[in-house]
Amino acid sequence: MYPREFDYVAPASLDEAFGALGDDSKVMSGGMSLLPLMKMRLFSPATVVDIGRIPGLDAIEDSGDHISVGALVRHADTATSDLIKANAAALATAASLTGDVQVRNRGTTCGSLAHADVAADQPAAVIALGATMFAQSASGTREIAASDFFVDAMTSALRSDEILTGIRFPKAGPGEGSAYDKLGRRGGRSDYAVAGVAAWVKKSNGSIEDARVAVTGVGTKPTLAAGVAEALIGSDGSDAAVKSAAEKAIDGITVLEDLYGSVEYKSHLAKVYVARAVKAALANAG
Amino acid sequence: MTIGVFGTSVKRTEDPALIRGQGLFVDDIKRDNEAAAAFVRSPFAHAKITSIDKSAAEALPGVQAVYTADDVRSLGPLLAQVPIGKLRPLLADGVVKHVGEAVAMVVADNAATARDGADAVFVDYDPLKVVVDPEYAATNEALVHDDLESNIIHTWEEGDAEAVQALADREDTVVTSVKMVNQRLIPTAIEPRGVLAEWQHGYDRVTLHSTTQQPHAVAGALALTFGLPGVSSARVIAPEVGGGFGRGLNVYAEEMLAVFASRELGRPVRWIETRSEASKSTTHGRGWAATATIVSEPDGNFLAYSLVGVADMGAYSQNFSVAIPVLGQFTMPGQYKWDAIYWKMDCVHTHTPTVDAYRGAGRPETSFYVERAVDTAARDLGMDPIELRKKNFFQPEDFPAATLIGMSMDSGDYGGNLDVLVEKADIAGLRAMQETARAEGRYFGVGIATFVEACGLAPSGFADAGVSWAGYGLPSAFNESAVVRVHPDASVTVVTGTGPTGQGHETVWSQIASDRLGIPMERITVVHGDTKDTPMGIGTGGSRSAAVGGVAVAIAADRTKEKAAKVAAHLLEASEEDIVFADNGAHVAGSPDKNVPWTDIAATAYQPHKMPEGMEAGLDMTAFFDPSNLTWPYGSHVAVVEVDPETGDVELLKYVAVDDCGNIINPMIVGGQLHGGITQGIGQALLEAAVFDDEGTLITSTLTDYPIPTATDVPSFDLHKTTTPTDANPLGVKGIGEAGTIVSTPTIVNAVVDALSPLGIKHIEMPLRPRRVWEAMQEARA
Ligand SMILES: Cc1cc2nc3c(=O)[nH]c(=O)nc-3n(C[C@H](O)[C@H](O)[C@H](O)COP(=O)(O)OP(=O)(O)OC[C@H]3O[C@@H](n4cnc5c(N)ncnc54)[C@H](O)[C@@H]3O)c2cc1C
Known about the structure:
The complex is a heterodimer.
Chain A: E1 7-9, H1 14-20, E2 25-28, H2 34-39, E3 47-50, E4 60-63, E5 66-70, H3 75-80, H4 82-87, H5 89-96, H6 101-106, H7 109-115, H8 122-128, E6 132-137, E7 140-145, H9 146-149, E8 150-152, E9 155-156, E10 163-170, E11 176-184, E12 193-204, E13 207-216, E14 223-224, H10 226-232, H11 239-246, H12 263-284
Helix pairs in contact in A: 5-8, 10-11, 11-12
Chain B: H1 15-19, E1 35-41, E2 47-53, H2 55-59, E3 63-67, H3 69-72, E4 95-96, E5 102-108, H4 111-119, E6 122-127, H5 134-139, E7 152-159, H6 161-169, E8 174-185, E9 194-200, E10 205-210, H7 215-225, E11 234-237, H8 253-265, E12 269-272, H9 275-281, E13 285-296, E14 302-314, H10 323-330, E15 340-349, H11 363-381, H12 385-392, E16 401-402, E17 408-409, H13 414-424, H14 427-439, E18 443-452, E19 468-469, E20 474-477, E21 480-486, E22 492-496, H15 505-517, E23 524-528, H16 545-572, E24 579-582, E25 585-588, E26 591-597, H17 598-605, E27 620-625, E28 634-643, E29 650-660, H18 667-687, E30 718-721, H19 739-756, H20 770-781
Parallel strand pairs in B: 1-12, 10-11, 14-15, 22-23, 29-30
Antiparallel strand pairs in B: 1-5, 2-4, 2-6, 3-5, 7-15, 8-13, 9-10, 9-12, 13-14, 16-17, 18-28, 19-20, 21-22, 21-27, 24-25, 25-26, 28-29
Helix pairs in contact in B: 10-11, 11-19, 15-16, 16-17, 18-19
The structure holds flavin-adenine dinucleotide.
């Protein structure tokens, strides 16, 4: 498989990278999605800007009440970071269930988010965690809420001159917990999500004080399931309450049929996995 | 120093190079002044080609030539061993018949430019009516090829339909009938196909490196296609090849076309298939829709079995084509005694890629049908599926066992083998677990399937029935040859006609030679896959290599040793009958301390003046082996699964297998074949399917949408054996290459159906992806 001819640049700094980016360029981080698409000639950018050698983008940082994840943090790092596991189990789990070992060792969390595949795992997690995305360009940095970041199938809010330099999300406070679960295309939790759900909850005094739930795989983009959260908030978090909230899993989502499921099946799965993810998040919240 | 003892797990000698990435595959072999080919392939399943505009491609710098049907028509269609049905034109000639059919070939200075050139060829198509479904094809409502009278190109029929019907009509019999699809699969070898063609102008000879499993057949096809003086002018080399699974048991248009381009351009021409190209240009497997019917007495005594359906051949016949179902016919009755059987299979063309051999080739299909039907009959009869099988098996005293399909099965103790499974897998314990699970509302299933397969193609007489390379100008039985050559320094070259694609023949063949000669394996080199080295070879497929090719090695080694014994007797001043080979040399029986080393024997054998009067120099023997029968490996497998009641997701918890492949040469390699084979069969049961839409577009053309199982998708297999040697060959080996694939598919489906039987579910079509299982559960619950 040979891509069309293209220029390759590997800038040593962000400024240099911004200089190389143009209308017909693509940022490359891990290359796990970009390169196959180029080889199949579905993408044929004139220039590939490999950000892999820019120093300082590969850190997972504890900044007091927040955690930030840089553009070059690999899925494997996200999955195994004690900081992320303790504070954002949904993201650690989603990263651990992304692809196979090779993909997790090369691909990046930010690359997966920028790629915005309809069935990707980590986008759901960052929405549920209420993350902020940093879209940087020569003209400055835009902060985009994760829930606004995913626009359509394979389309994020990033402009072609921007690099997603990192994301940031709050640490887990008392009573807070999150989880991610999915049915994978190969069965079990393996491969892209047929339906995947990330849930974040905050418990206090025996009831759910706050919640965010995001669904991936079933529609054109990972989406905040606002109706579920609304139903959960103020409830006691009992199995019955969770089950009834889960009924709202696809409110506002246009569920699409594909090889892996009919509209009916995927709608059903979304509900099943909302219930499973919320229960797991409640358990994680201690 | 390793004396390769028969029956021991010697480590694979091919692995150090392969694991370090030093193995030489087609794409590792480089030539000066190479050109590269790329193909323009049809996006339509059936369409008239109204125009082809090559000008933009020809104008690209680096593009050397753009060829279409006009350039290659005179070479004729692609040859096939069984030329029944429509043969494939080398390039589509005015009309395309499947998505992915090659319409034009672009040759350029490098592969990237060739690809650019292929993208710059503009073809206009006028779409025509598409026939995708084989059952629809069989109705002949629309023809796949308008110059053929029927889409049904051949019908296999055997047995007595009336006798089966008469038994079914008897009032006291129970009739179990299940219609099932054995879906079309895409053989996915890790190395895509590839060729490197070198026409030697001046000599008018050709050398072709190819990822084939049958180099001699390809050489024969080249000689005929290009009008060479004979096959001796065509040399075909299969270097290291990354997997076969039957896709290499073929002769392909790209092999002919690369040679054509090399002849035209006077340059070596390389073509390496891409993965998504492979899904449409390489042969597919399976693709049956059939109804299996069992007639039994209420006590479970089997009376009759029939299997009637259609087999999809795709748009064009290649290599074995309609002969694949007949390999299934051999084992169609399973391991059971019937009073009457009937088998009828219509082979049909459809507007899809060619279907041919895929691991098991016909036998996984028929085994699937009989084993699913037996499990269903057990349910209908209210009997335990193990007891029902044992009641109807051929018994040890029945062997050699004649089947109603006209075969004679060599040896077996089917009940004994199943008993071992019952004990090793603790079936009683599993049933107890199932009871507990069911009480908790969980869907826990225990599925058993047993099988017998037919391997070791073939006794010479089969050549008259078409088991030959006569279609490629080489009328030859499916025998195998070997040369064992002891050099003057007592190192050994073993030459084989088998074409390994990862099976470990280098190890096992040198193990056999070492075992026979008493020369350490380190001093033995196995040469394979080059038509220049072997008098005649058929290749690797149908689990035949050890039972035919390996036996030829043993016989050639024995012949060489016979001569060496004469030389040793001369050196030891003893008589030949008293010579014993041991410790890398020979001695007279009873006096092991006076040993002549192999080096002395070999050196003497190349110096006639030191040899017995009248003896000719050399230690080099050839053997051809013609087996007296097919071999009939068998076994019993069990899978334990749990189905998620909410999602339909199937979790495979445990897999236990008891296989009988006769004598075992290398247990580790047998285990490896089983691991791969079982996993591949699980792929068919749970994951894989070549899916076409109504327009004939393959919508599973990448590995993203065509998931194949990997090591992480399966549990650790628990493997056991029984040993019933065959008398069809002197090594007593039967074959193991396909066993796992043949039986694991029905084993898994039986387990899932068993898990869901409380819902009254009797069958779910494969692959048992969560979606399908959930839909079946929903329907059953409604
Ligand atoms: C075999 C396989 C299995 C997979 N399975 C899964 C799975 O189960 N679940 C799942 O979610 N995903 C899966 N994936 C997808 C994988 O997660 C993505 O390929 C990967 O995460 C993308 O990250 P990357 O760093 O490799 O991005 P790249 O491939 O380098 O880029 C992907 C896209 O994002 C853009 N991009 C990348 N980084 C940035 C950035 N910092 N700023 C702006 N734009 C950027 C690129 O321009 C490109 O358009 C699988 C992929 C493969 C190959």
